[in-house]
Request: fold
Amino acid sequence: MIGNVNIGADDIARAKAFYDALLLPMGYAVQVWPDALEYSRAVPAGERPHADIYITHPYNEQPASVGNGMMIAFQAHDQAQTRTLHAAALAAGGRDEGAPGFRPTYSPDFYVGYLRDPQGNKIAVYSSNPDDPTRDD
Reply:
């Protein structure tokens, strides 16, 4: 299980607009620190905790850079939410890396949209429920 994910950002305010648009609708809450953001989800009794997401200036005090081959994927409730979150993240300063749609190369039910955050990190929002009532067939 992943304990947390740290994402480097040079402009915390721009990163906040993007990650608020992406993560708050998915049930994350944000705590704002002087030079960082912490996104976490409440965990109902008996469930395993979710990984917290930290947006910070790099600890080595160098400019943030994009990890080649690194991508963080967030699971949406359904395809409708995948489309909504992708659009909201674009409106909040993200760049499109692939509109939401099926990617049959991965599996027949894998529905995903790809983005770059304001720093350039690759982000995916996906759903893979074959019985999804919001299916975009």
User: Anything to note?
Assistant: Helices lie at 12-23, 79-91. The CA atoms of residues 77 and 127 lie 7 Å apart.
